[in-house]
Amino acid sequence: FFFFSSRRRHTRCSGVSWARRCVQETGANLVKLGSYAYEFFESKKDEYNISRMALKRLEAIYYLNDQTLQKLRDHAVKNSIDYRYEYYGVVNTQELVQKLASKIYNYRYSDEKTKGRAMLYQIYHHAIHNRYTLARDFLLMAHVQQLAAHSDVNLQILFNRALVQLGICAFRLGLINEAHAALVEICTSGKLRYIIGQGISRTANEREERRRFVPNHLHIDVDTIESIHLISAMLLEIPHIAADANEANKKVINKYFRKMLEIYEKNYFNSPPENFRDFIYAASKELAKGNWSKSYTLLAQIKIWEQQFDSDQVKQNLLQRVKEQAFKCYIYSYKQCYETLSFQHLADIFEMDISMIRQIICKLIYNRELDARLDGGNACVTFQKKEISKLQELSQQLIERVTVSLENNERILDSKSGSYGYTDKDFAELFSKKRPTTKKTKVNANLLQKNKKKNRK
Question: pLDDT band for position 214 (50/70/90)?
Fold first, then answer.
């Protein structure tokens, strides 16, 4: 197993030798030999070798998708090929992965590192089959993150790959918050390819990093990862920007997306979108206006959807999320122009059910993101106009800027006088201890006593 994995890692995926290596490992040779060896050691009840062979078999099958295996079985039936002893002859891969992983967990010869690898293989397998809840529970209950943080680089790479697949799985199911939380740290690090074992960093040793390379057939498309991260950030950040339009200090959900969006908006002329980033930033501008149809049309033109299983269902989930976020942007942006809005009018604009419209508005009111009340008799929402005027907004910004400048001046003055970062209580604790007195400490002590007398008076 190690020989074929190491040889395949350094073989070009476009050559004939690559196809030959893949056939040797996943064909009737190596996988079948591993299953025979596993059955032999199981008959001998050799726990040490059983756990080793179970881990090697997991490495060979954890990344296989059931839909791909079903296509291979259909092709074999069409060509009258006996596939019972082939690697794609397994119908229920979840049961096989669970069986092999339990062998590793239960035997005493398996160390913590081996158990962590088996757990990450199982999480990866659950994620590519859209079993998000199971994968998330395994990741949280097993404390794999703590184990990977104190382990070697190979285990950290496997953990990052499993986390990326978990984020992609959440996005396919329409869980935008979970997808963004899983991908934001990895995608904003600036070393995405290196973190998932598909590239080289510029500072470290190149030979050592090439040894950690993941084989090409296990690569995760980097454009897919970045696209899903930016789309998730867009669906969370744009309504947040629209909601905080009148506030000077805005909370930022994704700093990277906010920065790149500001650069895109500052351009005097933006050419028609060419890559996935241009499509996402152009869709962000339409989403901020509440135009869900144009925003979804731009997102649907990205070429990553063809690589996903059940792409129609993924697009349908994305369309639903785009409608919801566009509805929030519409409410935040145009609430000052209306006194009441009927649910039927909003349902016609966004092509959503009235129950969904009512649910979103109730959630916004409950979270104190919208000052409004529901009128059940007339089936409408009434806005309570408590928004500040433009003059009040500018005065608030002026007060905040003056306060910040005043604090900065006080810090500069304190740093020169030697009392930077200390309060009267801190000075009392410092001067209560016995220490050699100097001129500066005597002056500070006298000032402290004078301030205390003034406070008493």
Answer: confident
Task: List the one residue out of 152, 142, 102 whose CA is nearest residue 120.
Answer: 142
The rounded distance, in Å, linking the Cα atoms of 399 and 167 is: 42
Bridge partners of 375? 380
pTM reported for the whole predicted model: 0.77
Task: Give the span between the Cα atoms of 353 and 217, in whole angstroms.
Answer: 43
Q: Per residue in 251-299, pLDDT tens?
A: 788 888 888 888 888 888 888 888 888 899 999 999 988 889 999 999 9
Residue 77 has pLDDT above 80, yes or no: yes
- Beta pairing, strands 380-383 & 340-342: antiparallel
Q: How many Cβ atoms are within 10 Å of 356's Cβ, its own excluded?
A: 17
**Sequence-separated (6 or more) residues with CB below 8 Å from residue 435:** 441
Tokens found for residue 35: 């299953």
Distance (Å) of CA 115 to CA 31, 62, 317: 21, 15, 35
Exposure string over 89-126, b if 16+ CB within 10 A, otherwise e: ebeebeeebeebbebbeebeebeeebbbbbbbbbbbbb
For 254, the token pair is 């994704």
DSSP per-residue string spanning 361-386: HHHHHHTTS--EEEETTTTEEEE---
For the chain, the 3-state helix, strand and coil shares in percent, each to the nearest 5, are 70, 0, 30
Length of the chain: 457
Distances (CA, A) of 28 to 22, 83, 239: 11, 10, 53
Contacts of 288 (CB under 8 A, 6+ apart): 238, 241, 242, 329, 333
Q: How many CB atoms lie within 10 A of CB 198?
A: 19
DSSP 8-state secondary structure symbol assigned to residue 340: E
